[in-house]
Amino acid sequence: MTPQIRGAQLARILGHWHALPGRRRSPDYSALADAVRGLLADGRLALGVRLPAERELAETLGISRTTVSAAYRQLRDTGHARSRRGSGTWTALPAGHKMANFGLWTPADDLDVIDLGCAALAAPPQLVHAARDAAEDLPRHLTGAGYHPTGIGELRDAIAALYTARGLPTSAEQIMVTNGTQHALDLVIRLVLPPGGPALVESPTYPNALAALTARRARIITHGVSPDDPGWDDELLLATLRQTRPRLAYLIPEFHNPTGRLMPTALRERLAATAAQTGTDLVVDESFVELALDDTTMPPPVALFDRSSRVVSIGGMSKPYWGGLRIGWVRASAPQVQRLAAARVGVDMASPVLEQLVAVRLLAEAETIVGERRAQLAEQRDVLVGELARLLPQWRVVAPSGGVSLWAELDGPISSALSRAAEAIGVRLAPGPRFGLDGTLERFLRLPFTLPAAELVEAVGRIASVRYDLDRGNRMRWPEPAVIA
Q1: What is the pLDDT of residue 424?
Q2: 8 Å CB contact between 316 and 151
Q3: What pLDDT score was predicted for residue 134?
Q4: DSSP summary character for residue 83
Q5: What does the alpha-carbon distance between residue 447 and residue 485 come to, in Å, rounded to a whole number?
Q6: What is the predicted pLDDT for the residue at 94?
């Protein structure tokens, strides 16, 4: 079913769309069309959505139907809408706009580059000792074949304890260890989403999730997430679920990547109930759940409200510990875990035992390690926010209460151009279109605060100088960007 947005929903996200008074005031129909185009460019209004009927929108906005008709006509003329007589009007993008390139992002080992494309911390000092202890413990595992499709028992116990401590009783039988969170997502997609099936994601969202869904030839439906609290439009998200009935929905409720928003408890409960009604499997990515800053009170896990085994939680060690430790996990019902393990045997058999032993030891020191990470990230976040306010005050940044990155709204649709220019002066960036579909999100840029404060200060200084050069209109031939993460 084609998703549809009602008049009241569109009015809510349009906000103050009216043309400004003054000598250069544009007609209301043009201002309305411009506002809709802005929503499309920012990813807050998805593509392929059926717009409200002209009469409905006119009544909701308190304007004439003629104004709405003229706005829709202008959107069609610019390629931002498509209409069929008697069927309605759908959002679109002009011909020539293509899906943004995304895929595995791996930064090059260039020591002269300040890499703001990768939102991950360096390894904690405790990792070396954990690895040594794990190596000493390895001999007791060498008498067997070493294949554990669901993971070694002690690590599954440790991960289950993490969920239980968050108020969600969990047993080891509900846990499967994977080779990172991305691997967990890929296995779940293989199990629950048929090729070409409908899948709902947020916009913006994690690029490698889009890559995994595209590899499955999924029909992707999007729901816009705002940089402002609360981020999600409850009614619009739930209505999209009911209208489209996707087979799978991939969501990041804890310090959403890249906006940093935290989903409220009430929406979590309604989301789980609606997914049960629509037959949708919710894949909840909890990669950042341990990285709450500013003494933020965390809402309960989405899975706590699951009454029909529709919520599958995925997480891993990459963000709070180290990306080089390829340990992730799936939390689901015990039967789902067994089905995932059976599907996994045809992919990679099992995760390395030695790395699992390292993970066990790191999790035993979680209070110390994660506490230090939170303090480090809070300090670096504040430095980055301060430098942006000082050197790029025209950018709009909402400081997140957790996670590892800012989602900056730029002063124009320049994200890709700015990223290419920054690459030439030794700063690698992740432009907004990487986090969406079809070339949208050009007004946004993800800026992680995972690097040391001095490097963040230097990076913002370089970015500001490049932004000034773009204003001067220099015609430079930018090199093709490297693949980043």
Answers
A1: 86
A2: no
A3: 96
A4: E
A5: 12
A6: 81
For residue 405, the cross-strand partners are 448
The pLDDT value recorded for residue 472 is 67
The pLDDT value given to residue 13:
80
Check residue 151 and give left, alpha or beta (phi > 0: left; psi -120 to 50: alpha): left
Residues of the chain predicted below pLDDT 50 = 22-23, 98-108, 475-485
The size of the chain, in residues, is 485
The 10s digit of each residue's pLDDT in 138-193 is 999 999 999 999 999 999 999 999 999 999 999 999 999 999 999 999 999 999 99
Q: Strand, helix or coil at 47?
A: coil
Q: Show the DSSP H helices in 431-477 as ranges.
A: 453-472
CA distance 160 to 164: 6
Residue recorded with tokens 């980043």: 484
DSSP SS3 for 28: helix
Q: What is the DSSP string of 348-382?
A: T----HHHHHHHHHHHHTHHHHHHHHHHHHHHHHH
Specify the pLDDT at position 19: 62
Q: How far is CA 310 from CA 233, 256, 264, 380, in A?
A: 21, 20, 19, 37
Q: How far apart are CA 160 and CA 324, in angstroms?
A: 22
Three-class HEC string of 166-227 = CCCCCCHHHEEEECCHHHHHHHHHHHHCCCCCEEEEEECCCHHHHHHHHHCCCEEEEEEECC
HSE-up (13 A, CA, CB side) for residue 357: 19
Pair 465, 120: CB distance under 8 Å: no
Contact 272, 281 (CB under 8 A): no
Q: At what angle do helices 366-391 and 453-472 cross, to 10 degrees?
A: 30
Contact assessment for residue 429 and residue 119, using Cβ atoms and an 8 Å cutoff: no
179-210 in b/e form (b: 16+ CB < 10 A) is bbbbbbbbbbbbbbbeeebbbbbbbbbbbbbb
Tokens 């070409």 sit on residue: 196
